[in-house]
Amino acid sequence: MAAGPWGWGLAVLLLLLLAVLRCAARRLRSRSAAKSAALSRDGDVSALLVTAHPDDEVMFFAPTLLCLGRAGARLAVLCCSAGDYYNQGEIRKKELEQSCCLLGVPASSVTVVDHRDLPDSPSVEWDTQLLASFVLKHIEANNINLVVTFDAGGVSGHANHISLYTALRYSVLPASLGASLWCYTVNVMFVCKQLITARAKGTAFIVPPAGALLVFLSLRPLLLFSFLISEQRHILTPSAV
Length: 241
Fold this sequence. Notes:
By secondary structure, the chain is an alpha/beta fold. It has nine helices and six strands. Strand 2 (about 75-80), helix 4 (about 90-100) and strand 3 (about 110) form a beta-alpha-beta unit. Helix 5 packs across helix 7 (about 160-175).
C-alpha cells in the first residue's frame, strides 16, 4: 500500500534528523579533541574511570576513554562489582579486561572490587562510605588526578550507578580537599528515548523499524551517547567544596 503524504513527510523528517545528528557528532569530536589537548597541556593526566559493572566502560564511557588515551593520559578502571547478577561474574571480569585492552587500558590498570556488600543489583543502593573507601584508596595509591563516573541519575537510573555518584560527590571529594582532583560525570543525551508509532485509518506510514534506527546509531556511538569529555558536566572540584 502506497504511503500517503504524512508517511513521506515523516520519512523525510527522520532523514533530516539523522543528518543533523551526524553534523552534531562531528562537532562533538572536534570539541572533545580540543578539550583533551587542553587537559594534557595542563600537566600529566592520570585518569580513573569508576564503574559499577563490567560492560559499563564500553556502553557509557568508550568515547571518553579513547579521547583521553589519544591525549596521552594514563588510564585506569575501577569496576566496583563483578557483575554477578546472573552468576557470570568470572566471565564478565575476563570480558572487562578484554574490552579495556581495546579501549587503551592495560589489564594491569583494571581493578574489580568483588565485595559481598556491593552486589550487582538494580534495586540495591550501595553503602557510599564503603564505596568511597575503595575509591579513595585507589586514588591515593595511583596518584589519580581526574575521575570520571556516572551522573546523579546513574544514566539509566540503575541504583548501583547512582551510588557511585553519591559516593564521589559527598564522600570522596570532601576527603580530597587540597588535592588536585577533578571529577567529571557523564552528561547523557539520548537521541532516541522513545519512538512514537503514528497510525491513521486508511494510511500506511513508511517508518524505519526501531531496531534498524538504533543499529544505525549504535554504529556511530557519538550519535547515541554524547559522553565526550567536552560534553561532560564538571560536578565539583576540591576548591569548590
